[in-house]
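Hi team, as promised in this morning's meeting, here are the two structures we talked about. I've kept the exact order from the run log so nobody has to guess. The first one is mostly here for context; it's the second one we should focus on when we meet again. Sequence first, then the predicted structure tokens.
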Amino acid sequence: MSHVPVLEIGGTHVTAAVIDTASARPAPLTVVREPVPADAPAGELLDAIAAAGARAEAPAGAHWGVAIPGPFDYETGVGRFRGIGKFEALHGVDVGAELLLRLPGAPRRISFVNDADAFALGEYRAGAAAGRRRVLCVTLGTGVGSSFLDGGRPVTDGPDVPPGGRAHRLTVDGLPLEQVVSRRAIRRFYATAAALPGDGPLPDVHEIAGAARAGDEPALHAIRHCFGALGRALAPWCERFRPDLMVVGGSMAGSWDLLGPAVRDGIASCAPGAAPPAVTARRPADAPLIGAAHWTLRGAAVTPRART
């Protein structure tokens, strides 16, 4: 099986493609990206996801790979989205069975994988993590995603990784990590540091980074505070897991030249010598698609239920 159809489901979009696993690239003219209504009823959500998949022109009887954020039961294909502000309608829904009924071409099976793991696997197969044994992949966007890879396999339990292998479950300074390091948290911290009026629009993270580069003290303080906290949260796990490399992706990775020193300083303050070399993703756009495709070659899968 060299051509694998995949879906990457994000909080605001769904991307479909057919991945040539031999070349680790999408097949020509197969990539489709569409908005997804994250707060819509279950049927509307599933129809939108399947409609994007239909446009990718997957082969009949295919085994699909699907990268999707948690909380999700990846073995059974059932959503566990409760109290997180997106995909609430899919809580308790057998997403695997519903997609198998909706996707064209009588799909054979679906393998689900966490979206952060899919990103990491794509970078391991065809990006910045190629050839590395132990890799920590971090995605910085709306929140913090993470994956700890050992020999190309996600590590999700044991003493060397956070619970579930997920950094967003960590706490720092007595707070959940994403209350300190997330798009919303960084913007709010900067607004306080800069004494911005409470009723005005807040600059986005890339604008705060730009101000920090220009020497703006509140922006520099926000970057050092928030990303130093990320480093402190990751420090014990860098010390235990001992990654050969950290690969950084997500919308904030473009400012890594500024954010990276703060993260390294945070790690060094708690675990001197434990900070791994860090690089930005080489395949930021298609790494999750590549990773989902390779996951189908070895992952457990949801099989079709009887069609009615």
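And here is the second protein, the one for discussion:
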Amino acid sequence: MKLKYILLMGCVMVYTALAGTLIKEENIYIEKLENGATAIIKERHDTEAVAVQVWFGVGSVYENDKERGLSHFLEHMLFNGTKYTQPGEIEAEIEKKGGSINAATSYDFTYYHIEIASPFWEEGIEYLYYMTTAPLLSEKMIEKEKPIVLEELNRHLDNPKNILWDTYNRLTYKISNYKHPVIGYRETIEKFDRKLVSDYFYSHYVPSNTYIIVVGNVDRAKVLNKIKNTFGAVKGKHYRPPPVPLEKPQKKIKKEIIKKDQVTRAYVAIGWHAPPVKSKDNFTATVLEEILTGGRTSILYQELKEKGLVQAIYGGYLAHRGTSQFLFYFVTSPDKVEKAKSKLFEILTNFRENGIPEDLVEDAKRKIINREIFAREEVTHDAESIGYAASVAEDIYYDIDYTKRIEEVTKKSVDEFLKKYVGNSNYTEVQLLPE
């Protein structure tokens, strides 16, 4: 996920001793409520839209062997009725008001979001409060949802590219749960019951692990009052996500070739272990990503795509709480795999030995900053970047100072990153080829 940033002009920090830590600034307001939940409100009067999001510091990386896929399963379950609403009622009401509602589950986080016109911000908060604090989680709905999720798993497994990424994660991760797919496994999903689902929900989806984000054309005091009267009244035991164990340094090449008759082209993923999201090196990794794969002017697009070695190439820094990845993924004809791979490593070796030109580093930084300024115009992206910073990076200034930290990246730090992480004998490679 690419993070956006918040531009704060002339802000003054004020610290007040209340139930938690209250941080008040000109454009963004953060308050830790008495029950441990965190409210984050950003008033924006340049729009008529409002984004309401509820983030949790929980994802598949925190599941045990009996729970594989449960974070994703709960995403489905929270749309299956609450103590206050019938199944489908919330979605219908949001759509009547011209809004949208959805959710996402990843390795490190889960979040639920509503985008709606500003007159309906209060309903947005109320609906997400119902969903994320008072779901029914009935046995009947669990049994109803199982076939739906299992069919989703079937589609996942029928897609050869998903097999490629599942294989890649299994190869490269040996310690942390990033080696398991977010969607889980058939043998675990089939055994989900009300006790397991409820125990997991009430252990992880608790106030101390909850971030309520509201961005848009709202009155901060009114929004805060609404959040306190809803999310602030929830009880729950304390839970904070534990540190994700880091992988041991990879010192050899791990490679696997998969052959499927459904594919006609070659799909190749090559990647290296990279530092966690909280590391300052992650900003360096973002700049290197831009240099190598950031659009049509990037090095790899010019040298591989434009010269006919690949049909498409993507890549960059994939951030996690634990060991992250710096990877590349390209599509080509089977007879060009080794040529494309050879050219990729030729470029990386040249940059590692001779350094990356200063102008490429500075151009990449400008592109990232300009793109972030444009992207944050949408309240949804603005709220997402705040929620990610608070719940995953666990530092709101990861977002607030994002462009400042990009600006601080130097040619020296990019060169050092390449030498430290991206070698010729410490990578993971998976190829998906036609049978």
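Starting points for discussion:
The chain has two domains: 33-233, 254-434.
The first strand starts at residue 14 and ends at 17.
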